[in-house]
Protein: MFS transporter
Organism: Cryobacterium tepidiphilum
Amino acid sequence: MPVHSGKQPWRQSLESLTVRNYRIFTASNIIAMTAVWMQRIAQDWLVLQVTGSVAAVGITVALQFAPMLLFGLYGGVIVDRRSKRMLLMLTQGTAAVLSAVLAVLALTGTVEVWHVWVIAFAIGLVTVIDNPARQVFVNEIVGPRYLRNAITLNSSVFQLGGLLGPAVGGFLIEAVGGGWAFAINAVACVITVITLARMDAGALHLTPPAPRGKGQLREGLRYVVAKPTIFWSILMLAFLAVFTLNMPVLLAAYASEVYRVGAGGYGLFNSLVAVGALVGALACTRRANIRLRTVIYSGGFYALLQAGAGLMPTEIAFGIALLVVGFTNQLFFTAGNPLVQMSSNMRVRGRVMSLYVLVLLGGQSLGGVVMGRLVEFAGPQVGMLVSGLVPALAAAVMAVIIARQHHLHLPIRLRRR
């Protein structure tokens, strides 16, 4: 992988978009991510309306992420063996059908909470293959030269969707009901399939598929454990995924119980996080170097600031804190994801990224239930504090362990005036 020794000039912050296939992929990705965020907001609020329970929202999050926890590693094996482009066309087509079914149920007024749970679990099954395939396919689109920039831009697109989606989704819920958000997501999935079909296949940097063989799953796990940059990055991600990344559960509680601002306020809270994250992602496109210490420090700092958000005395102060939390969120993800990808061999990258996504989404599956119960038992403020303090403590412990393993020292020089 080529490594830049200094900061890139601002004019090169979008250099991966010089690749035609990546331009059209990114354009469709903006639409898709906005629609996905709309569906997430509408889905969570629909469950809250039907049941009146924050814990039920946590169960919904858990069901959507549980398949990745159960089958995520096998998804990586499939991705390493098959065409990533064809897998994405299949998964997006299936997601379109599932979203369309949920739209019909919601718009006809026949939806029940178990309908949402079943479809959420089915979408989770689609994610088992879709997420690692999408991660690895970016490398096939842009090649190694632009990979780091493309990964950072993907994060920016995700956050742009997180900015637009909740705002539009909250407006739709208030104006005409959440069913139209599901219909829009179905259309967006179809657009993604069409975009993938229209790509120039000859310009792709295709990875030879891994041959079938025994022990491929264990091989991938051994590879991750043997590489400190991958192992510690994924362990930091695990703590954040279980505790810190369950913001929909926490923000739903703040919107309905603390500030009583309804669906529009819930969408606004999510949008504020996304605004900060978008700014953070764009700022990180010029990052010169990515080190393991950057991942651990930024993860701990992000978690600590989220804990502080729970102590804000007013709604305005809470909103400002969410902006900062979103910004620091991207300091972690635009360091951790590229470091894991660029530290892994292409032959096993599908399995490595499936483990990364498994920890990311599977951790949220477990954390959705845990944080939902904690919020109902102790209140949103306590839930926010716990969501940040536990990963911050874990980051401090990891930093000490890594320093001791590698005999690192912190020099302190005292000077007299």
